[in-house]
Amino acid sequence: MARYPVGTYENRPAIAPSEWSASLSSVTVSVTARYAGLDDIEQIERMYDALEAEMDALHVMWKRADSLRLPVRDSLAEAIEDNDSLVIVGEIDAIPFGFLIATVEPLVDGSLIGAIRFIFTLQAGREVGVAETMRDLALKDLRSRGLTRFDAHVLPGHRLVKNFFEAGGFSARTIVMHHDDDA
Prior knowledge:
The protein has about 180 residues and is an alpha+beta fold. The chain has one domain (about 15-165): Aminopeptidase, CATH 3.40.630. It is built from 5 helices and 5 strands; from the N terminus they run βαααβββαβα. Strand 4 (about 110-120), helix 4 (about 130-145) and strand 5 (about 150) form a beta-alpha-beta unit. It is globular, with a radius of gyration of 16 Å. The termini are far apart. Residues about 1-25 have low confidence and may be disordered.
């Protein structure tokens, strides 16, 4: 899969790596998204660990039902090499701040849907356009494959992500209820 940036947002706040826990400062930055390669796995795996910690705090079932299969490194490599998957890296000034994983999946009627399975931006890089740029590249790619339907997987209670996708034209189509006798 070819790598190319999908867009930039100029005059957005940015964070230098040394300030990742600090607040955003006003500087001109370039926010881009590109397809991930195998050389990105280590960086994505570190961000995935942060995603996993956030999701674990929201719902104990996430790790069991919705996470990547272990070992994560192998799952990332498979996704990068799979023609029916997209792995995208979002960057601020060429520094990775986020990732997105989408898949092409069959529906029961035989048609296909593009499903954004994971989207994550490091805390310090949020609200500057990283997630939007990754989402835009994913939708552009999926549309180029002839897809017109898209899902985005969001945990209940993750209001910011739900709002992010709703702002991009998504709406809920199903809610999965869960009960655990051991809980």
